[in-house]
Structure formats: structure tokens, C-alpha cells
Design goal:
Elements: H1 11-24, H2 32-39, H3 43-55, E1 59-62, E2 67-70, H4 73-79, H5 82-102, E3 106-112, E4 115-122, E5 137-139, H6 144-151, H7 155-164, H8 173-186, E6 189-192, E7 200-207, E8 213-221, H9 231-248
Antiparallel strand pairs: 1-2, 3-4, 3-8, 4-5, 6-7, 7-8
Helix pairs in contact: 1-3, 2-3, 5-9, 6-8
């Protein structure tokens, strides 16, 4: 038997999960016919699945567009898991204080299979902010949060991640390993955003009691004219906040802050 062949099947459950995963990738939602076409199913069998998912509160029907969209129920369920609930409970007040102090957005991320999942987000009082929506998934290799968390995983976990998620175009394994080693040495990463020009990500791991990263705290720093808070101060405050979060969840100390000056752009 092929190792990839599932031992047991549940066709109805698989159809429902296929619909949820498909809608999670569509910002505007999809019509019943579009869902059926993409999944290669008949409209009638898709309709039965949609009715059940709507009754259970996982999806909603927009009568104005005839499209189905995900509700927040799956995210709410994810928030009930012990790790995420414990993290967000401990992190929320610290993140609010940090956002107020440095006048920048702050987000909290965890690893979710081959992606980075944003589970916490706080905006500062400033008018112009760089925020990431709760529940957003980001490519693990191109997110500073993902790189920081993978730098503090076991070799086995890193190998499994590489097997599931190929490196992005233009990145080699040797380059990635060098980057992760440098992150481990520093205890954090300060790097130009991989997706938004002019944004510099300040990211530090939150370490659990096993010594491995269970989350990452990241500030997508934007420079404003006349901002009294220096970039260096933002770096120090962010890294210190991550260290206090690590302590609050029973983790150990990672690296140490020094008198180095934090430069804008790629920290290498």
C-alpha cells in the first residue's frame, strides 16, 4: 500500500473540510457553483455540505452576492486551545503596553504546520499603522516570525518543515541555515520586511519550558517623520517584552541585550 494512502476515509467529512480550506483562501467568498467546480463535486452534494456548515456556524451566506464566506468560528475554536489561550492571555497586556510605548503595531504568531499564524494583534495610538489581521497565515520562510521560531526548533522539526514546505525561489538551504544560525546567536531578528517595502520587522522568540520557540513577538516597524521614539529604543523594548513573555510561560533566557546599536534594514 502507498504510504500516502489514508488507512481510513470519511468522504462526507473530507468534503466539508475541503470546503472550509477552499473558503479560507478566498477573501471575497465563493458561490455554490464556484465551490463545486473547484472541488470537482456536483452542485447537489456541495449544497448539502454548505447547509450543514452554515447551520453549525462555520460559514455564512451573503444574500447580496450569493457567496459563502468563512465566519470567525474556526479562529474562535483555535483560540480555545490551551497553548494559544495561555499565550494570548499572558501576552495581551504586555503587547498593549509595548504598542503604547513605542507607537508601533505588535503581533503575536505561532507555527501552524507549514505557515505562521497570527494569533494576537495590537495597534498603537498613531494614525498610520502597519497591522496584520488576526488569523492571517504567512509563508514560514518569508516571515520574520517564522524564521525566528524555526531558529529555535529541533533539527528534526526543521527537517520536517523543509520536507513539507519547499524554500522560496532565490533562497538556498545553505543560506537559510546560515540565517537561522545567526538568529540563534543573536536571539532575535531585525530584517527588512519580505513583503512590504519600507517596513523593518523586529522579531524575537517566546521560548517554552522545553527550550524551543512556541511563538514569536514581532513589531513591523514603520518610520514616521518627527517620531520621538528611536528605532533602537523600539528594538530594545520589543526584545525585552519577548523575554518577559518567555519568563511568564516558564521558558529560559535566550541571548542577552547588549549595547549594540540596532541598524535599520537587514540585521546581519
Amino acid at each position: 500500500m502507498d504510504a500516502r494512502t489514508p488507512k481510513y476515509t470519511a468522504p462526507a467529512l473530507e468534503k466539508g473540510l475541503d470546503i472550509l480550506e477552499l473558503l479560507s483562501r478566498s477573501d471575497a467568498g465563493l458561490t455554490q457553483a464556484e465551490i463545486a467546480r473547484v472541488l470537482g463535486r456536483s452542485v447537489s452534494e456541495i449544497f448539502r455540505m454548505l447547509v450543514v456548515l452554515q447551520d453549525r456556524g462555520y460559514i455564512a451566506f451573503d444574500t447580496g452576492t450569493d457567496r459563502y464566506v468563512l465566519t470567525t468560528l474556526m479562529f474562535e475554536i483555535a483560540q480555545r486551545t490551551p497553548l494559544i489561550r495561555r499565550l494570548t492571555t499572558a501576552a495581551a497586556p504586555m503587547m498593549r503596553t509595548l504598542a503604547q510605548r513605542i507607537n508601533q503595531s505588535v503581533h503575536l504568531a505561532v507555527l501552524a504546520e507549514e505557515s505562521v499564524l497570527i494569533v494576537g494583534q495590537v495597534d498603537p495610538p498613531a494614525r498610520h499603522v502597519m497591522s496584520v489581521r488576526l488569523g492571517t497565515r504567512v509563508d514560514v520562510w518569508r516571515a520574520s516570525s517564522g524564521r525566528v521560531m524555526m531558529a529555535f526548533q529541533t533539527e528534526e522539526a526543521l527537517t520536517e518543515m523543509l520536507a513539507r514546505t519547499p524554500l522560496p525561489q532565490g533562497m538556498t538551504l545553505a543560506q537559510l541555515q546560515e540565517d537561522l544560525a545567526a538568529i540563534r546567536l543573536r536571539g532575535h531578528e531585525i530584517v527588512d520586511s519580505f513583503v512590504v517595502r519600507g517596513v523593518v520587522n523586529i522579531s524575537a522568540p517566546i521560548i517554552g519550558h522545553t527550550g524551543h520557540a512556541i511563538a514569536a513577538l514581532t513589531v513591523p516597524h514603520i518610520e514616521r517623520f518627527g517620531d520621538p521614539i528611536s528605532f533602537s529604543d523600539c528594538c530594545v523594548a520589543t526584545i525585552d517584552c519577548a523575554a518577559r513573555l518567555t519568563q511568564s510561560v516558564g521558558g529560559g533566557v535566550v541571548g542577552a541585550l547588549s549595547d549594540e546599536s540596532f541598524s535599520r534594514g537587514r540585521d546581519g
